[in-house]
Amino acid sequence: MANPKFEISYIRYAGFSRLDSFERNKIESIVNLNVEKIKRITPFLGMRLHLKPIHEKETELARQGHVHQIDGFLRTNKGRFHAVARHRNPYHAVADILKNLLSQVKHKHPHKEEWKEVFKKYRKLKRKK
Q1: Distance between CA atoms of 54 and 1, rounded to whole angstroms?
Q2: By three-state DSSP, how is residue 108 classified?
Q3: Dist CA 60 CA 63 (whole Å)
Q4: CB 3.0 to 4.6 Å from 92: which of 1, 60, 61, 87, for a disulfide?
Q5: Measuring CA to CA, how many Å separate 58 from each of 62, 70, 121?
Q6: How is the chain split among helix, strand and coil, in percent rounded to 5?
């Protein structure tokens, strides 16, 4: 478990070594922006993104190139979340994954009172801006 005082957390990228350095830096910037949004709602423990190139041979889309599938796993103090996205552009796939994970974190059913308190604080901050 991560120490909230030092905010120890990790982001692991699997399968992104096939991309060039510019593409990796662009994806890391997209991920960092969305991780900050997640940290506003709940403490962030870790994330793993796995890039898989998929070939669709039986459809007409195979002529256009391969599809990028990204599996995303998010660990927080409140639970684990999983999302999958497919897109030809890896930037769109990463953005879809992170949007899905953020919505899962926001709409987690509040089983405990502490979830309700976190959302109240977030809504108050949102109104003030």
Answers
A1: 34
A2: coil
A3: 6
A4: 87
A5: 7, 21, 50
A6: 50, 25, 25
Strand partners for 69? 52, 86
Who's near 124: CB < 8 A, 6+ residues apart?
none
Tokens of 4: 């909230």
- Give CA–CA dist 75/48, Å, rounded: 9
Q: What token pair was written down for 74?
A: 């998010």
Residues 6+ apart with CB under 8 A from 85: 69, 70, 72, 92, 93, 94, 96, 97, 100
Q: Distance between CA 23 and CA 101 in Å, rounded?
A: 22
- Beta-bridged to residue 82, according to DSSP, are 73
